[in-house]
Amino acid sequence: MLTKTRAAKTAHRSQPRPGFFSEDEHAFIEGFLRDGYAIIPLEQKDRLDEVRRRVYELGCEHLGLKGSKRPSLEEFLDHTERFAGVESLNALRLAVINGLNSDAQLMRGFFDMARRPIEWTVGNEIAMQRTINLSIQLPNDDSSLLPLHSDVWDGNSPYEIVLWLPLVDCFKTKSMYVLPRAQSRKRIAEMRGLKGFDAEKLFQRIKPELVWLEVPYGSAVLFTHCLMHGNRINEEKTTRWTFNIRLKGLLTPYGAKELGESFLPVTTRPATRIGFEYLQEEKS
Amino acid sequence: MSEKARRGWRGYAFTRPIAGSTIPHRVQNLVLRTYAERHGLLFLLSVFEYHHDGSYMMLESLYENLPAIEGLLFYSLNMLPEGRAARERLYDAVLSSGAGLRFALEEMQVSKREDVALVEDIMAVKALARERVPAELVP
Ligand SMILES: [Fe+2]
Question: How far is the first Cα of chain B from the last one, in angstroms, to the nearest whole number?
Fold first, then answer.
């Protein structure tokens, strides 16, 4: 009898559905959980065009390309090898980055271009890397290879994601490759307990499983750096220009890149501030 | 009438662990000097805080000298007092005397009241990473 009374008093609860997501959000999340990455169209294309134009101007300025020597924007980005050699690439990269950083709205701009999928991936209370990384890969340049790796192996938080944003069309070896999530997990599990790690050997072995991301200008990749990923020699005819920026849930654990030093809060919510202040008042 | 010229940034370093790690004085000084150099600041010899937990005696002793210098240069944000009230006293002391606060490792600064919010947001998250809500706060 007792059980019956109890049952009668308990409100009927239907089977919980995990997540209150809209349909497109749900589909995105399922895809990201499956693959560990997503290729996303960017919003505010005019802001991206502006950044690209600025990169071109800063680059030309640094290399002294004036008047009749000044190439078109397309030629400069596609054929950077005509204007800069491998040895002068780092100086060019730094000149462009430093020039871009003088724009206080730069990071905000990148964030806004991908805000919706970023929030779908890490939540809406977000920490973003303070500085942006730029990589330039000339055709056939073997000096800027990025061997197969996961950033987590260097002590970075597994809660971080990377926004990988090209200024040119990226495809085949001009792009980056990832090992999708299921295979990444399997391969990493296999590696545990192994002595010694040879990135090149592993790359050759898992080559058929790798996905070379096709990312046209105007779009970007969001990926978890828990995935194994990397790049090879750019065997295409044109230069690769890409930015990458890390993002994570503000309140998720930090790794080697700490809050303050490497990340900054960009969307702190009032409840987080109020809760903290309440606890602090109790303390003092 | 011009204000008497302020001179230099006073280094402030720790003897006790910072966020769980003990950083040699030499390393802290190196970071402070490099930061000052890169930002074109006159670096004034560092003051080291007492070792015992929670002590800010050296820091507080610097307050009266604030009107004569440009500000305090902390090795890291992680050295800020844990309690909000103590941090408020620091912000007030610094800002009301027209000085500034800089953090070398994080390359951040507080030069006006609005800059405090970002520092406090970071402190909130760092505190969250360390602790749970204490049970006695539940009425
Ligand atoms: Fe990586």
Answer: 57
Q: Could you give the CA distance from residue A24 to residue A39 in angstroms, rounded to a whole number? A: 14
Longest C-alpha distance within chain B, in Å? 57
**Helices A270-283 & B116-130, crossing angle to 10 degrees?**
70
Q: What are phi and psi of B18, to 5 degrees?
A: -110, 120
Structural tokens at position A43: 């919003």
CATH value at residue B87: 3.40.50.1390
A127 vs B contacts (CB less than 8 Å) = 125
Q: Is residue A53 one of the residues assigned to a domain?
A: yes
Question: What is the number of structural domains in chain B?
Answer: 1
Spatial CB neighbours of A265, under 8 Å, sequence gap ≥ 6: A125, A126, A127, A250, A259, B118, B121, B122, B125
Q: What is the pLDDT along chain A (284 residues), one digit of tens a residue?
A: 445 555 556 667 776 666 789 999 999 999 999 999 999 999 999 999 999 999 999 999 999 999 999 999 999 999 999 999 999 999 999 999 999 998 989 999 999 999 999 999 999 999 999 999 999 999 999 887 899 999 999 899 999 999 999 999 999 999 999 999 999 999 998 888 777 778 888 899 999 999 999 999 999 999 999 999 999 999 999 999 999 999 999 999 999 999 999 999 999 999 999 988 888 776 65
Residue A247 bridge partners (DSSP):
A128, A161
pTM surpassing 0.80? yes
* B133 at interface of A, judged by CB pairs closer than 8 A: yes
DSSP string over A233-282: ---SSS-EEEEEEEEEETTSPP-SS-BTTTEEESS--HHHHHHHHHHHHH
- Whether A6 maps to a domain, the answer reads no
Both structure tokens of A251: 């309140």
How remote is the CA of residue B27 from the centroid of ligand 1, in Å? Answer: 29
CB contact under 8 A, A260 and B77: yes
Where in the sequence is the domain holding B70, given as residue range(s)? Answer: 3-137
Contacts of B126 in chain A (CB under 8 A): 259-260
Number of domains in chain A: 1
Separation between Cα atoms, residue A151 and residue A257, nearest integer Å: 11
Report the distance separating Cα A210 and Cα A41, nearest Å. Answer: 22
The interface predicted TM-score (ipTM) is 0.75
Residue A153's domain comprises 23-251+260-266
